[in-house]
Amino acid sequence: MPSSDYSQAAELSKKLEDRLVDSLESDFKTTRRAVLGGIGLAGSAALTGIGRADGGENHGPGKDSHGNFGAVGEYSDLDFDPHEFLYQFNTGRGEQENVPQDMYEENGRTVREFTFQAVDTTVTIAPGIEFPAWAYNGQVPGPTIRAVEGDLIRVKFENLGRHGHTIHPHLRNLNPKMDGIPQNGPGVLNTGESFTYEWIAQPAGCHFYHCHSLPLKEHIHRGLYGAIIIDPDPERVAEKPEEYCNYHASQITDELRADLVAEAKTRNHEYPENNAINEMVIVMNSFDTNFDGGNEVYAANTRAFAYSVGETDGRGNWKAGETKRPIQIDGQQRQRVYLANATEFDLINSFHTHSQFFDYYDHGTTLTPTNKKIDTVMQCQAQRGIIELDYSTHDPGLYMFHAHQSEFAELGWMSFFEVV
User: EC annotation (predicted)?
Assistant: First the structure.
């Protein structure tokens, strides 16, 4: 690719990023980093007007609108990297240092166990700009959980934040006590309280989890959300193929059954066929930095313009400081994106690719596409799906992707794939 193309892309990225940071600094008359450094988390919460975001509702069962105050946990020196997050699938095998986890057999079923803690922290959303977040294990989005259909997901959850929190899974959960809502089971967990959630990994697909404490709009917006990936079990697909496609059981041919099983193996991380696919997680999110009920920053995986173009020599070597570089992909390898929308205060978000069309699997619950050959997909909050991309016929170089709400793109949700 001509170096001038990289230079022009870098110039555009820098112009938009500088404009975003300048607007935020102008709004506050100082940087978010200076504010938080000077007065601490509790003070910054008061300064930024949390009361307006509360909407007059309560955080959990306490009398105070911010729940019960107490000891606050914090992960030290946790440097969230949106490029690492793309590929961090926690399967119980210790993939992330800040996510204690284990995998073992119990009563004939595979158990994938994770320890989650809700903490109050700050997250970097743009160069020099930090946001006072509530986060699972100190990161936004929260850790990605990955299991196989039929496994038991066991999450030992402890609330170390100042407010009452839960974990609510968007799964087919058969036990109301495990739903993670204020009205069922342990309800909202206050500071220092803990509970162990157990969910059967079903159905196969790309799913979502989040805090369900009130007011929902603040607990989700502050960062308490993440993705759950449930891989299909090829053996179950062979037995009940009609559950994984838009065909009646009487329409399933031997050829279709074989195709569905083959596709299931590419989606299952325990099968070698999955190694041929480059898989990544993208959570679309946003940040209301002045807490007026509208977003000032939009991002893919929290950091504005993280996957845009910084300084490069045009040969794959990047130097940008704030992890700013395109997502580099092998053009000959199939690409799979697990996409979820966590945006608050906007009705929809979207994902659009330049110079390419993709197949889309809504919620990822089928092995055949729900939309074929599209270049834009919309998602409401908590909606998710799987995107399949093929760049094998494309020339090497930069290919943009972004939200196709132009405001979102210019305020941080603009990215590039670098095909090599």
Answer: 1.7.2.1
Q: Residues annotated as binding site?
A: 165, 170, 210-211, 219, 404
- Beta-strand relationship, 358-362 and 89-90: unpaired
Burial readout 153-191 (b: 16 or more C-beta within 10 A, e: otherwise):
bbbebbbbbbbbbbbbbbbebeeeebbbebeeebbbbbb
pLDDT higher than 60, residue 54: no
Would you list which residues are annotated within the binding site for Cu cation? Answer: 165, 170, 210-211, 219, 404
- Percentage, residues of the chain above pLDDT 70: 84
CATH of domain 32-231: 2.60.40.420
- Specify the pLDDT at position 127: 85
What ranges do the domains of the chain cover? 3-26+275-419, 32-231, 234-267
Tell me the pTM. 0.89
The string of pLDDT tens digits covering residues 328-337 is: 999 999 999 9
CB 123 within 8 A of CB 140: yes
Q: CA-to-CA distance for 138 and 118, rounded, in angstroms?
A: 7
User: How many Å apart are CA 4 and CA 314, to the nearest integer?
Assistant: 9
Class of domain 3-26+275-419: mainly beta
Q: Quickly list H helices, 222-360.
A: 234-239, 254-267
| Cα 68 from Cα 398, distance rounded (Å) | 49
Read off the pLDDT band of 28 (50, 70, 90): low
